[in-house]
Amino acid sequence: MNKRILVTGGAGFIGSHLTLELLSHGYQVRILDNLSPQVHGSGRKRPSYLAGEAELMVGDIRDPDAVRTALAGADAVFHLVAMVGVGQSMYQIRDYTSINNLGTAVLLEALVERPVERLIVASSMSVYGEGLYRRSNGVAVAGVERTPDQLRAADWEVRSEDGEKLTPIPTPETKEPNLASVYALSKYDQERVCLIVGRAYRIPTVAMRFFNVFGTNQALSNPYTGVLAIFASRLLNGRPPIIYEDGKQERDFVSVKDVARACRLALETPTAAGLVFNVGSGHRYTIRSVAQRMAKAVGKEHLQPEITGKYRVGDIRHCFADITRARTVLGYRPRISLDQGLVELASWLESQVARDRVAEARNELVARGLMV
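Predicted structure:
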């Protein structure tokens, strides 16, 4: 096989696991990453967890010369570079737009000059906004949102226009996007512009909508990373996880190892070209139950979650994945359950040090009126 794969953002959480997955299946891997201080710390050194066989190029996705150099000799590209964080995206608008949107445009212009066999772009469940719902008569309902009056009254559930509480159901790729944050908008832009340019220049392109990914190698001191890493950061510092609303909001948590395998399958499956795939576990969990499982996994059950009753602008109530398309087209089958993944994560956490910056991030949102 011996094909060379470029992974933008490959020194990060998902990218590092994808790199291992690709190397273990005979690919050569080159990484382009700017080693962002928010993720990698001020030293910006090569992460110790990054596979030694991977070639690391330190550079900015917005730099055309760096991108062209990284593309030299590449047979396929995984585009994972992105600033990640719903709340932060609502006030660092320029940074999110520049890196996520302009960075993708720079990559695509380079690919127009030098096409590859396949482009896989990382998207996000955030593009859905609220997930899919069903009325009591069985009719599916999409595009619903909670009103400001509801949220101020702490009426957290999603309701129909006549006040009926709607039941959340698995969300398929066919649901229309409902972009509730700058981050969500930028991720949708990334996937659509990649698919549009890929089609125009005959570069087979696949978009992967990741749900709540968890596992080792997450940046524990980054308060805008995945929720499980944020919970872990609090617990490692002897503090309870902080939960917004009432903790009963539901999400799909998927192991990063399953995500990495799904990405490789998207690279290797000819019929995946031109399609968008949900990448989740196919299971749903309340945020409160996940926080309790995390505390138990690290032996700190006494640190019960702090339920704030607060709401962040851009948050949604329920969204979990329908993974039928990934199962059918890619042959994707999640292998690692939440509890199995938490055991591995807890073991890794024993050797980690985390700076708890959750309160700092929360204060930033409050100061800007982004938390109700």
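Summary: The chain has 13 helices and 17 strands.
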